[in-house]
Amino acid sequence: MKKILVTGGSGYIGSHTLVDLIENGFEVISADNNSRSAIGMLEGVEKITGTKVKNYKVDLCNFDETRAIFEENDTIAGIIHFAAYKAVGESVEKPLLYFHNNMGSLINILRCIEEFKIPNFVFSSSCTVYGNPDEIPVTEQTPRKDAESPYGLTKQMGEQMIEAFAATNKITNSVLLRYFNPAGAHPSSLIGELPIDRPQNLTPVITQTAIGKIPALTVFGNDYPTRDGSCVRDFIHVCDLAHAHTLALGFLLQKKNTNNCEVFNLGSGDGITVLESIKAFEESTGMKLNYSIGNRRPGDVIAIYANNDKAKNELGWSPQYTVKDIMTSAWKWEQYIQHQPTHLDLRAHRLN
Ligand code: WQD
User: Fold this and answer.
1) Residue range 143-159, pLDDT digits in tens
2) Which CATH class is domain 3-349?
3) For 287-319, what is each residue's pLDDT tens digit?
4) Binding-site residues, ligand 1, Cβ < 6 A
5) What is the pTM of this model?
6) Which of 146, 181, 251, 348 is 20 to 30 A from 317, alpha carbon to alpha carbon?
7) Mutate to test the pocket of ligand 1, among 130, 149, 233 (most ligand atoms within 8 A of CB)
8) 269 C-alpha vs ligand 1 centroid, how far in Å?
């Protein structure tokens, strides 16, 4: 079995990707210091797959700690690098924290890739690198624009660092995966999105409002030039996203790549508005959501959704889950957390 190192394996997309990798015959190890993830998330992965995942609880900004993983595992066939801070709002308040953590960890991973000649590398990027696109849907050729936040800047800088590394390091083949809006939870409800403190992203705000953790949801603006005035986004189910990582690894392992740094958009290809998302939640779950219209949120992109043809044609990827699946699975997960206060170490992540 090919051994894959997944950094951020206890995180939202990381844990779902571990499940998909295991189910597709890969041996996996995780590196996660649990600074932003629940220690018990790997417990959920084990319950789903029957596989106990070894986690290296290291600070990836510490080179020696990071390097030790490679000393101990001499047959790593590929790395998927999820570990990063990703709260847009927090990045505006603490840019240096984001530059240190997101870039420091990436540099150490790249140094180890070079030293240990790791052949395959998948990087967790984001549609945020497109900024406010002039045309939608965006393709992989759509130029990167000024990032709207330090978080987005770390994704842009990450991509550029890997492109520069790839230009001189022909041993390693890399793929940059640009996620649109990850949402939803595993159908088992044993793993899902676990915001720390108050969530920023729309879907967990919706489910926490519905369950009563948040009194009311504010729609950040309904005066945008869109069909109903609220922003347009491309929500992609986390399980579809996870499977794309497995396919991307297969793409590299089978040497199907044209050059040694390829980019893929991972979105559903459908743009829906914030108000349509709320309606989809209400229709999918039968819950009535308490929301009101508020001011625009600084830095918000007006409208973005993916042209995902390249991932479909070259990775053989086809998203299976619908917005209804996203909303129903997210709601089931929210209810699961509510009634499993000690499980998955969720205490640390519950609203105080
Ligand atoms: C979506 C829409 C909000 C909350 C960011 C990052 C992206 C990725 C996902 C990491 C916007 C509106 C939200 C609320 C609202 N990050 N909204 N009320 O900003 O599109 O993307 O998170 O992987 O890289 O850029 O996601 O879910 O925060 O917002 O009206 O309480 O929902 O204004 O239009 P975003 P989001």
Assistant:
1) 999 888 899 999 999 99
2) alpha beta
3) 999 999 999 998 899 999 999 999 999 999 999
4) 86, 88, 126, 128, 179, 181-182, 200-202, 205, 217-220, 231, 233, 274, 297, 300
5) 0.96
6) 146
7) 233
8) 17
